[in-house]
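Section 5.1 Outputs to date
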Amino acid sequence: MPRLTARGGIFLVVGVGLVALAYAVERPELLPVGAIAVAAPLLGLLVVASTRPGVQVSRRFEPAVAVQDEVVRVTTTVAGRARAAEWIERVPMAPGFAGPGRLADVRMTRPAEFGYRYWPERRGLVDVGPLLIEDHDPFAFAVRVTDTRTVTTQLVLPAVVRLPVGPVPAPASDTGARSARSRERSDDDVVTREYRQGDALRRVHWRVTARQGELMVRQDEPQAGPRSRVIVDTQRSCYPDAAGRREASSELFEWAVRFAASVAVHLDERGYAVDLVTPTAVPEDAPHADGPAGVTLGELALLELGRDDPHREASAGAGALPVVAIASRPDADTVRWMLAHRTPSASAPALAVLVDDDPSLLFPTAVSVPPMAAGQNGGQAVETAEEAFARAGWIVARVPRSATPVEAWTALAGDRVAQEGGVRGA
């Protein structure tokens, strides 16, 4: 709805005052001045009210699938009818909007276009928009802010860091490992079709969608090779910095998600298909990203902390199934559940990374140790999560939140990294 600007309000008040003063002091020459001062902002309101824009807004993203904290170039196209005006567009980045900028005249046969950049601060499905058009009269006495109400959803993936070779070997040639060329074909040569009502969002092919300008979905899926398993603890109570917060947010959990994403891409590039496993439910209908480990990255993008739920039954993989577990301060039940994903006789590596603000501390998990291992007769002992994993044959590293994914991965390979806070391998 049109409203007066500060300038228009001042003119209106001054005009009314001059009219009143003209009658009070019997100075009729002040009446025309007062009348003009009153009429000018009212005329501005009339002009703005009569030029309501009618537009359709569309957006293009480059890249189509964003990565957390990496630049996204947005091109917004405005079609329809609108006078030259200022624009502001809401974006998921502080301070919450892009602009202001100048929008050129929009005609039915001549749409206007403008661009800007933003850096997504959080992963997941984020909304860009709506576009706000701020229309003034020529003298800025009145303004109308039009909310176009059109938003465009973009998938934002967790940031990925390339990892060195590390402790997980490439699968044997007889297990059907996928070559880089075959993985490239499976990502780029997938058959797509137009989106139909009822299609799962996870089947959207974002790269082709950006190229075609309309939603396109996959008709087939790339062939999987030998499998691996990435386990992420998603229980809110197991992350100390999430306790006492009304929102389910945790910097430690975000570190775990970023590390899981880096590991998933690394395993995919080594030739493994990656399965994401969590103690709470994995997001349903998660969109697929393009490129290595696209399914897992899409699931990680939507992964959130949840309330403590009964752990789902854990199925131990075959001996050739590598397992990587990521947690902060897992409780006893969580440790047992993670250990159950690998048989004691398995030959493939099992790795556990525990991230904490204070990695120098040992946190008991109340995992009972068998009498023989505890050195007691019929008794039980309390051991730390690190000890429980190590006793089961896992390679364990406890790292600070300040550690990079490369440093954590290197610690699992047996190399200690010197840094503030320390990285300890077991």
